[in-house]
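Subject: complex prediction, re-run

Hi both,

The earlier run crashed halfway through, so I resubmitted it with identical inputs.
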Amino acid sequence: MARGRAVKILLASSNQGKLAEFRQLLAGFDLVSWPTGAPSLPETGAFFQDNALQKAEGARAWWQSHGREAVDGVLADDSGLCVDALWGGPGVLSARFAPDLPSYHDKGRRLLAMLPEDADRTARFVCVLAFVPMPGPMHGGPFTVSGAVEGTLAFDPRGDGGFGYDPIFIPDGHEHTFAELPAGTKHTLSHRARACAALRARLATGRR
Ligand code: ITT
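This time it finished cleanly. Structure:
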């Protein structure tokens, strides 16, 4: 795939926070954004892996009839925050948690309010990436890679950086939330950084 030039990847995500991170974490690839106004991609599975594949395959099907340029493959990300005291929730439902609250600071506050005061505050961010090549004899089949980062929940949202649940998550080994830490620090240890490193390694082997 893409001998002598950068692999061209369609990023099948409408989440601006993820997209900003992909531009840093996947530097060196030729990245194409999911067009504004393109359909939103269904995610009806029970597991991150199901949803990542469902989004990537849905995006590939749409791109095959509507895409404005050729790409080598499609990448989708399904991710979320898994809180041990909430039996792993909101997990795969993270984007659908507290739909009445538009701001993630408020969603974070509601999530924290669900924990009893003496609760175990351990949590992890999980990211599953699905890569689906465009059809072609040299392109191989779809695959997934994943990454996770362990941490604890803050007592209140803190910080303005990052996106989503970053203000309530303190990665192990740090005292600040992802929203307080510099983006560069998040990119050395995050769930998405780890999944992107695995994606890079897998694409470099040429084994798909
Ligand atoms: P796409 O499906 O278009 O990619 P989405 O926002 O619907 O966008 P998901 O279904 O994967 O994506 O939901 C991910 C949820 O987890 C969403 O609420 C994010 O804000 C949150 N999340 C994922 N990664 C995060 C990160 O690095 N920092 C903070 N929150 C994160």
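The first strand starts at residue 8 and ends at 11.

- K.
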